[in-house]
Amino acid sequence: MTKFTDHLWEQALPIYEKIKQHPFNQELKEGTLPLEKFKYYIYQDSLYLADFARALAMTGTKAGNSHELLDFLEFAQNAILVERALHLGYFKEYEIEFDSGKGLGCFAYTNYLLATSAFESYEVSVAALLPCFWIYKKVGDYIYADQTTPNPYQNWINAYAGEDFARSVQKALDICDQLAASASEQTRNKMTEAYIKATEMEYLFWEGAYRLAISC
Ligand SMILES: Cc1ncc(C[n+]2csc(CCO)c2C)c(N)n1
């Protein structure tokens, strides 16, 4: 039987293909991404993760049982820990001291996730949060399998190729499938819409980093 998440994957496949081919990810894979772009991305990602953790925790409060509440609180905790590791590691290593604030790509994505987790149903919030896990898993596996070594961005590439991360992604997928199985068609449509929107935002986040900001 096809799962709801199979349907989601198919719906957003063209965006995923664009994400894979994006120069940021191609150059990251080849190790040729200019350091300035990587530094800007890491800085934006640290801002992203702080709000993403809030959106995860808020979504957890809507869960129908304490197992899923705990799952979301653990996801939120991990996002904060990743953010701290970024600060302790990359911020120090590269002397990152940006003070430009959130770029519009990051701003749009975090505000979308915060608004969705605050005002939409549990089902729709879960679907909106899913690309963060799943797209990173897919892009991470793609880059890991085909990277040029040695690669200056090896640590970052490894972070999304590990077993622990794979387990988190599977948990998020299973929760989404379970919710969709007992949701109305109208809710499933809203879930699909949220999933596609968040996938588009993942694309914009990389685009913003590659251009060192998207601006008017
Ligand atoms: C823009 C952007 N999107 C997704 C991730 C990946 N990610 C960040 S935290 C987390 C799960 C925490 O439990 C995952 C999968 C990222 N780093 N930056």
TrEMBL record:
Recorded GO MF terms: thiaminase activity
Function: Catalyzes an amino-pyrimidine hydrolysis reaction at the C5' of the pyrimidine moiety of thiamine compounds, a reaction that is part of a thiamine salvage pathway.
InterPro entries the UniProt entry points to: Haem_Oase-like_multi-hlx, Thiaminase-2/PQQC, Thiaminase_II, Thiamine_Salvage_TenA
Keyword line: Hydrolase, Thiamine biosynthesis
EC number: 3.5.99.2
Domain of life where this protein originates: Bacteria
Pathway(s) per entry: Cofactor biosynthesis; thiamine diphosphate biosynthesis
Top-level taxonomy: Bacteria, Pseudomonadati, Bacteroidota, Cytophagia, Cytophagales
Name by which UniProt lists this protein: Aminopyrimidine aminohydrolase
Family membership noted in the UniProt record: Belongs to the TenA family.
Reactions mediated catalytically: 4-amino-5-aminomethyl-2-methylpyrimidine + H2O = 4-amino-5-hydroxymethyl-2-methylpyrimidine + NH4(+); thiamine + H2O = 5-(2-hydroxyethyl)-4-methylthiazole + 4-amino-5-hydroxymethyl-2-methylpyrimidine + H(+)
Residue ranges constituting the Thiaminase-2/PQQC domain according to the UniProt record: 9-211
One Pfam family linked to the record: TENA_THI-4
